[in-house]
Amino acid sequence: MGLSLIWAQTPDGVIGVDGTLPWHVPEDLARFRRLTRGHPVVMGRRTWESLPAAMRPLPGRDNIVLTGSGRYQAPGAVVASSLDDALAVVGDRDAWVVGGGSVYAAALPHADRVEVTIVDRGLRGDTYAPVLDERRWMPVAFEPIEGWYTSAAEGTRYRFVTYAHRPESSPAHDPRLQAPHTVRCDWGRPGARAVAAGPDRLAVVVDVLTFSTTTSAACARGIDVAPFRWHDPRAQVFADEHDAVLAKDRSTGGPSLSPGSVHGLGRDRLVLPSPNGATTSLVVAATGAHVVAGSVRSADAVARWCVRRLAEDPSLVVALVPTGEGWPDGALRPCAEDLWGAGAVADALVRHGVDDLSEEARLARHAWLAVADGFTEHLLASASGRELVERGWADDVRAAARLDADDVAPVLVDGWFRSA
Q1: 278 FRET partner, CA 20 to 30 A, in 46, 123, 255, 342?
Q2: Domains of the chain
């Protein structure tokens, strides 16, 4: 039996929103049909229910539906209660796993091939593809070899990538992943998925002028912070269910991404949506990484927490993730303040004896050392700092510039950042 996985994702790894594909690329669907037809397909209950009624079960394929409910009915399909049961149904036939996220993650250790369609869209999602460990997986085919195809339906760019097991004779690591250094650094959600994904990673998510600084200020006051995706309509319901306050826009005057707004909150739980820091934290946490919010305010405390974890398990990797900002078209905008924040944590790590930094992490550290004296003025003069000043929030910039003002490491545990 050969087990293959197939999915389509954005460059950030989004594979679904509210149980649906947030794009329409007919060419990808045609390839899906061509590859899977004639073979058993394994899927979770939600994936089954997301299929159009006319396509349920998927024609020309034995459909196997995974669900924990012993009474679940899937007309035209075989219902299995576990992946092992599903593979027993497959027997010695070649099969495909077609979704969703948790089923992909469970099946990945058993797979010998992964087919990924990269859809060139910047989207917020709630379901993510599993991370392919570079020690086990490597890309072996690209279509097209360079560049992108363009869909005739919506003009969306896309390309196909095939992954297979890495031969033992090939290099063990992609140099872009900065192995074997203990401390690594890369930008935004794509960078986080490259260097900070997996249970052996201490992911330091740095969003200096908004999320991580506010999280640090809140945790220093005994307030737990739940990261939430930006403009997610479920945030208020989540806050109500957990007796928490939902942060709103700065202009409302209430709790927001302003660090000063957590003073006198009145409750010990805050739901904090943000487009960069919160979303990146959730993306990385989904891979099993240990996530901590890093900022200038908490640089030394975060470094000490990392040092303690490294003492317990020297095989861990510290991954600094300056989140950056976004341009209107969704492209990443690297910004000075997050590079400085990552560098402040890197410098603190060196001071505490962890000096095996990749060149990218060294760059962040040197960027910080160049502005550490007089940092407040540098931050106020940065593009993002000036943007906040012009909107009347200069005090937020000054608060974000206070080195080691909070002696806490905000660590994400069970969906909440808590002081460690």
Answers
A1: 46
A2: 3-172 (3.40.430.10), 177-210+275-419 (3.90.1560.10)
